[in-house]
Amino acid sequence: MTGFGIGFAASAGAVLLLMAGTFAVARKLGKHSVVDVAWGLGFAVVALVSLALASGNGTRSVLLAAMVVLWGGRLAWHIGRRNAGHGEDPRYSELLSKAPPERRTAYALRMIYGLQGALILFISLPVQAGTHADAAIGPLAVLGVAVWGIGLFFEAVGDHQLHAFKANPANRGQVMDRGLWRYTRHPNYFGDACVWWGVWLVAAETGVGALTVLSPVVLTFFLTKGTGAALTEKRMAGRPGFAEYVERTSGFVPLPPKQR
User: Which sequence ranges are marked TM in the entry (predicted)?
Assistant: First the structure.
């Protein structure tokens, strides 16, 4: 518990510095959407801090850090490339419109940077806990890596397919229903959930890591009911062909398309 407490405090400090730097960049660029890049980076930072202070099984510590850094680094690179050259994300404009102009800076610090920083620390608890236990690597960790691999595949391939689809002018105004998007309306969000359930399985094998189960539960809730799939579909509701796409395609877990 002492090692975990020290690691948690160090991770909190690292995330605080990352969010402060991100806020400074956002002020300079005039858009808060840069925090989306810091989301993946924040998890990678926590994983590296946890690895540096790890007091448990060295193999598991390296494994957990590698899983999170690879996922977080890829996500940050993808979002950075996607957002380059674009203005503010409408989500943040709408959020900040709820506060009077003179209070928007404080509101942004609390509701964007503070909230995301807190979520990073909470969702990454399996990584933090798993690096301070001595249990040997076993079948549950192997299963966790497999689930993580499936998640990374769905997220990375789904993002690539959507990027290529949007880059083709012939697809302007159409609904993406090809590749992995034929089997689930949100392969990237499904992949995200699998990644963190896989990380939790690796940590859960230590026993104490199993107590962090609320971390993947909370993330899955946000991906399905919060700012993930539900918000995306709300924005796309009026797009031609989207209602038909919803009728034949699974909302989250990949399934064969329904025959009409």
Answer: 6-25, 37-55, 107-129, 135-157
